[in-house]
Structure formats: C-alpha cells, structure tokens
TrEMBL record:
This is Tyrosine decarboxylase. SUPFAM superfamilies: PLP-dependent transferases. It holds the Pfam family Pyridoxal_deC. It comes from Oryza brachyantha (malo sina). Keywords: Decarboxylase, Lyase, Pyridoxal phosphate. InterPro entries: Aromatic_deC (IPR010977), PyrdxlP-dep_de-COase (IPR002129), PyrdxlP-dep_Trfase (IPR015424), PyrdxlP-dep_Trfase_major (IPR015421), PyrdxlP-dep_Trfase_small (IPR015422).
Amino acid sequence: KHIRMGNLPVDTLRPLDPDTFAADSSAVVDFLAGYYRDVDKYPVRAADLEPGRLRKLLPDAAPEWGEPMERILDDVRRDVLPGLTHWQSPTFFAYFPMNASAAGFAGEMLSVGLNVVPFVWVASPAATELEGVVVDWMARLVGLPDRFVFSGGGGGVLQGSTCEAVVCTLAAARDRALRGIGHEGIVRLVVYASDQTHATFQKGARLVGIPPANFRVIRTTAASGYALTGNAVRAAVEDDEARGLVPLYLCATMGSTGLGAVDPVRELGEVARRHGMWLHVDAAYAGSAAICPEYQGYLDDAELADSVSMNPHKWFLTNMDCCCLWVASPATLTAALSTYPEYLKNVDGPAGGAKAPPAGVDYKDWQISLSRRFRAMKLWFVLRRYGASGMRAYIRRHVAMAEWFERAVSADERFEVVAPRRFSLVCFRLRPPSTDQASDDGGVNRELVAAVNASGRAFMTPFVVDGKFVIRLAVGGAMTEMRHVRDAWELLQRTAEQLLGQR
C-alpha cells in the first residue's frame, strides 16, 4: 500500500523525476511572475514588524508527510510575503540595491539545477573555466589594468560577498607580512580605513587575528568630499611605525555606503607602496558604474592596488549572491588559503595521472570555504542577455533619476543636499528648525524618515555625518522608474509639511 507524499507515493519517491521537476519549477516561476507583477502593491517594508510572528503561524514540528507544491506556495503567499521587506519593490531606496533580473534568475536556475561543486578544476572543468572567462570579461568592462586578468598574471574569483573577499585579502596580506617578521609579529600589524569605510573591514581584521586596537579609523571631512586623503594616511602610518608597529593593509573605497564617497586610488596607492602595505579597492556598489567610460577614471590608478572587489548582485542585475574579487598576485592569495589533501588533487584517467588545471586555478584556494556555487553561470547569462551597452544604459538611467532627485531637493528651501551626489545615491535632510540647530540630534529628520517608511510607500535608510542625521535615497532597483522617484519626493514633501506644521 502506497503512502502518499502530496502527489507522490513515499516508497517510489524520485526527487529529480523530470515530470515532477518541470511541474514544480513551473509553479514556482508562475508564482514569482505574479509576485513581480504585484510587488508594488505590497508595503515596501515589512508590514508587520512584530518579532515572532511567523513562529506563531507555523507548526512546532516539520510535517511527517510531504505536501503538494500548491499548498506550500499558498502558505508562502499568506504567511511569508507579508513579513518580507520587498527588496525588488520599485520604491525600495534603502541601503544599496540588491538587483535581480530574468537573465540572472535563468542563470541561477541553471546553476542550482546543475548543482555542480567546482572547488577543484577536475570537479567541474567547464565551471572553473567559465568563471575565469567572466571575471576577465568584467575586469575589462570596468577598466581594470591587465595585471588583474589571468593573461596578465593576476586573476579573479566569484565570492559570495565583499565580507568574504575582505577576509581572504586580509589573510593574504597578513601571511605575506608575517613571512618577514615571524608569526608572533601579528600583534604589531595595523589596518587602515576611513570613517566612511564599511564596517566589514573591522570585522574582517578581527577574524584574521588583527588586534582591535590596531585598526585605524581615519577621519574624513567635507573638504575632501569625505574621501580618505594620502596625507591623513601617511601621518597615521608614520606615527605607528615610530612606535614599532607594522602597516599591513589599506582600504580605498569607490562609493562608500554612507555618502558614496570616492577615495583617490593613486594617492593612497603611492602611500601603500612606500610603506609596504596591501591596498584593496572596495567598489562593492559603485564598481558597476565603472562599465561606463565617464566613471572609469575612479579606477584608472588601480595598477597600484593589490586587490579590487565589486558586487554584481548590487547594481549589475545579477541575483544574489555574486562578488567579483580580483588580485594582482594569485600566488599570494592562495598561499594563505590553500590546502592539498590527496583526495582533492586533480587527477585524470584510470591511471590517476596528475593533470594541472588551466592557469593553475583550483578555486577552493581562492576563498574561505571548500565548497562553492557555480556563480559564473548567472553572471555569464546577464552579460550575454543584456550586453555591455544594455548594462551601461541601465546604470545611466538610475544616475539620471538620482540627478533629478538631487535637483528637486536643492530647489526646495526646506531641504538641503548634505554631500554631493555620487553615482545614484543622494544624501539629504530637512533643514532642522532653529530649535534643533544646536544639537542637531536628528530631531525632525528622524521623524521624517520614520514616517515615510511607516507609510509603506517607500523605504529609505539614514546616516550620520559630522553630527548631522541625513537620509539616503539610493536609486538602483531593477523595477524602479522615474515615476517612482517622483512619487517618493512628493511623499517626502507632504510628510515634511505635516511634521513642520506640528511644531
């Protein structure tokens, strides 16, 4: 007697039965198509922020018997969607965008469906080689020098996030330095970044063993556009060297999270070279813009860098997760991350003869974990489906929307732009009433962003710079159009008028 599992008897369960696979996958695609069709009807931020809501709705234990796909998707629609913040909403302007596209989804489906694990070349040669191709394509698109492509002696890898890329490059820099001063010298190593640099770098430094007291956060000012300057770094480095410490690693940012600030790569690169530091360029968000010639100047001096990273999943229509990391010296990176157990060596044929992978690439040695996903497929699909010209138009359209929003803010005397617009990020605030000017603790601007977000019609996030509480509007959603930006501005104006009228 068969026991039913949804539409399948348990004793004949075939998890990859082609007919069931096609039916279930089609149901999910139809569900997502309907979701994207109606995503603008959902409050962009989770409507119900009560902690524990979903736990109350779901059973305490997993089901004993399988259930039909239709029933599971009904539960997603009823129980899960209302508790999501909808990152693909056209009025999501918070954080930085998390892009998605039909091409990225198709590539992700193939990646997940094929389900290969290309940790060594022989484990899936084509997956390894496709990854090498697409990271070289991307390096050339954003204008990186030849030293970061495989034919130029460097190379790239697809990580999951900037966090992973940071830990890997910090480990490489650490081991390179310790070969000269001994492992006990780790307590002398110092990492440098600006007060605009993402906190990921502080976390990464701790993870590779750098004492927290040896992380230098260097102050930036409005005079430099909140960019890190060579003089400020030089002063900090020379002070540390005078105390017997060893400068290890310097981060330059192209498009900082708070304000979109851009650090001068050549200026910082020259300081890094002079003092033997590893220079990493973090272009997680704005690196995508460098495919446009008008933005490539920010990376013109990357020949002085040791590594560069950018996230196609932010602003390059590549579904989460995908981070390009390029290094000028792969050997330095793999020396810190390699392991060579017998069962992971590349072998070919029944005789077990060793076969070296192309360009010496076993990607397990370019990342933290051993296992890895076939991320190259989705980035390849995006590049093939939309082409470089299509992607440039996509980036420029968002920049144009941000330019319009910046002009609109500047034209309203109640508001001010706090820092010059960079790329598609605008940082602004409502000019505080005179009673708030002294402390400027956020006051009316905290109320403004809270009211806008609570409306469900837009979602923005704040930042604090020079004691000023500012609001960030980051344009970059795959479904965002100019009308959504205009609507967000009208919402801000109406809400501001109401708040000021209550004071």
